[in-house]
Amino acid sequence: MSLTLYYSPGACSGVTINAIKELGLACEFVRIGLSTGEHKTERYLKINPHGKVPALLAHGRLLTENPAILIYLNSLVAGSKLIPETDDAFERSVYYSDLMWLSSTVHPSVRHISVPAYYTVAEDTTDVVTRGKAALTVHLQAIEQRLTVTDWWYGDHWAIMDTYLHWCYSRAQRSGFSLNNYPAILAHKERIEIMPSYKSRVEVEAG
Fold first, then answer.
1. Exposed (0-12), middle (13-18) or buried (19+): which is 206, by Cβ within 10 Å?
2. Does residue 16 contact residue 56 with C-beta atoms inside 8 Å?
3. Whole-number mean pLDDT of the chain?
4. Do the beta carbons of residue 18 and residue 197 sit within 8 Å?
5. pTM here?
6. What domains are defined for the chain?
7. pLDDT in tens, 117-137
8. Which pLDDT score is estimated for 207?
9. How far apart are CA 130 and CA 149, in angstroms?
10. Maximum distance among all alpha carbons in the chain?
């Protein structure tokens, strides 16, 4: 299997890196500078016309959107723990739904806080940030409630959903959103950050 992942440090592509490291897959990691606009250059748009990261080339075929990439990576390794194993089609769809909820609902509220200029042509982004904080607060309250009674999103065992959760609340925190009212989330954050695959991801992003 030939894998190439296009990523940018600090972006949600870190979740994808974490998944690859957790699975022990060989992969070439290619850094794309979002802050410099490299993702919008002609060279990169030839690779990924959407101009986004992550983008995965698997045997030369392009796959985009984090949930889809994570589901695909999960299929590559027998016994993978990225997504809980089940023979029940409905239950499997619930797991996929959780990833899509993070990607399409929680993640955008984080972006409203961290990169508000993407969502308005006005110079004043205060309203965008305020709306993002309000939406994220609702999401984090639900996440906090769930993590209060269990260490991981699905109970006793880590799944890639946990790492995606970590990216969302950590990215918001780096943009000034306080997590002080969420002790279960802060405990979850500590558990994620001692995982070997997380540390390997940090090394890739720092390289």
1. exposed
2. yes
3. 97
4. yes
5. 0.96
6. 3-81+197-206 (3.40.30.10), 89-195 (1.20.1050.10)
7. 999 999 999 999 999 999 999
8. 85
9. 30
10. 51
